[in-house]
Amino acid sequence: MMGKSKNAQCNAKIEIKINLTTKDTKKKDKFVKDGLPAIIKINNDHNNNIRSAEALSFLKPSEECRTQFENYFNDGLGISESIKMHESKLELEYGINSNELANATINLKYKTIRHWYDVWKENNLGSSNDISVLQKLEEKKKYYEENGIIVRYSENPFAILVITSIMKRAHQLPFA
């Protein structure tokens, strides 16, 4: 038995006809004469469902979504935690069985989020080599100190020490 055909005989199409621009066509065709050598016809008459989960999965991610994920990363969430947080928000907003969960504009693929995280990480934390990490620490050291965080590091041997206000309080307890 053969598989089901994916050709839905959909009437939707885009036709693009580009006319050759010559002296003769400039004389005869008023559109070519006005600098418009192409004719584009759009037939948006679909006989198939264009709001299916599969169709929605091909949409491009929105900039708003990218900003939201960058905020997750700024808040200290990694890739998996960000995805779980975002999916939970979508489920609350649209319902757990909604088609919107398949919409790649708002519910992104792992590969996209991984790329965004890699770009965010490079911009905010530097690359993973020792020199870059120390450069980023030096850039952010003033900000950390303004917020009560002590940062010390050594290049050789490579070591980084970070002490937050919670850590300071914990060490002042009698049983510490």
UniProtKB/TrEMBL annotation:
Q: Which domain of life is it from?
A: Eukaryota
Output this protein's name.
Uncharacterized protein
Q: Which organism is it from?
A: Macrosiphum euphorbiae (potato aphid)
